[in-house]
Amino acid sequence: MVEYEYRVLQLPGAVSRADVRVLLTEHAEYGRWELARVRLFTGGTRKVWLRRRIIRVQRTA
Hints:
With 61 residues, the chain is α+β, with helices and mostly antiparallel strands. It has one domain. It is 25% helix and 38% strand. The protein contains one helix and three strands. Strands 1-3-2 form a three-stranded antiparallel sheet, covered by helices on one side.
């Protein structure tokens, strides 16, 4: 079974799409996050859910 950890970012409407793209690209490249969901609210506020896999290391004897 695959387990994920989530990070929620809330971005104000004043942030441009280009700036949001740069922010999400950095999270993806350096933190190994992937885009799970985006919700756009009235007023331009965006709520972005990022997820990444939890890798469990099994102990060897």
